[in-house]
Specification:
- The chain has 135 residues and is mainly α.
- It has one domain.
- Helix 1 runs parallel beside helix 3, helix 2 runs parallel beside helix 4 and helix 3 runs antiparallel to helix 4.
- The radius of gyration is 17 Å and the shape is globular.
């Protein structure tokens, strides 16, 4: 009986962990700003970066799948987080996505410290390639 209870508890924890990753992915697909590092007057970590790191902490195959989904369904800020994940986990796929962005006119709302700017997605992707966004 105790073994059954322990197994149910472990299964419940696994389901909740998966649910939090799914929730993070959903939030990232509509995130308002793309930001790494301290932002705002208090220099806090953005919610987008926290969700990004949660996905990145998953097993590589799961994280790659989540970043592919985010790239396919996310807004430009979400796509930027997906590109950051791809750059780290699958540099070849990142290069493919980067090449496909050459004609993109999508704009990303980027936050650096207290400054918010609007930049073309292709330019943000090139900055990701050069390591301008550290996580």
């Amino acid at each position: 009986m105790w073994l059954f209870a322990i197994l149910m508890l472990l299964c419940g924890v696994a389901v909740r962990a998966d649910d939090s990753v799914a929730s993070a992915l959903k939030r990232l697909s509509t995130v308002e700003k793309f930001a790494f590092g301290g932002v705002g007057f208090a220099g806090v970590t953005s919610k987008g970066e926290i969700d990004f790191k949660l996905i990145l902490s998953q097993p590589q195959a799961a994280a790659l799948s989540a970043f592919e989904e985010l790239y396919a369904t996310g807004n430009p800020q979400g796509k930027s987080y997906a590109l950051s994940g791809m750059k780290k986990l699958n540099p070849q796929r990142f290069k493919e996505l980067l090449a496909a962005l050459e004609t993109s006119t999508d704009e990303v709302e980027v936050m650096r410290g207290c400054i918010v700017s609007h930049e073309r997605l292709r330019d943000v992707a090139k900055q990701i390639e050069r390591g301008k966004f550290r996580f």
